[in-house]
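Lab notebook page, bench 4
Experiment: in silico fold of construct C2
Operator: M.H.
Input chain length: 72 residues
Purpose: comparison with the prior construct
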Amino acid sequence: MESLGKTLVLLGLGLTVVGLAVWWLGPRLGSSGGLLPGDISLRRGSFSFHFPIVTCILVSVLLTVLLRLFNR
């Protein structure tokens, strides 16, 4: 059970580092905010709606591959 605790702490620290890097580098990625082709973005007057469907799919595939590699 001790190794599970260490793993969770390391995973949390890793996610924190990645989150801080994305937060810091986010504005530098471009004026479009890093939108991928296929992401839905609507602007009508004062209303704006953004749904990053392609980004969600890409992140899901990457996480699936990484977790399958580490699970072996």
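Observations: The mean pLDDT is 81. The two ends are 19 Å apart (CA to CA).
Next step: discuss at group meeting.
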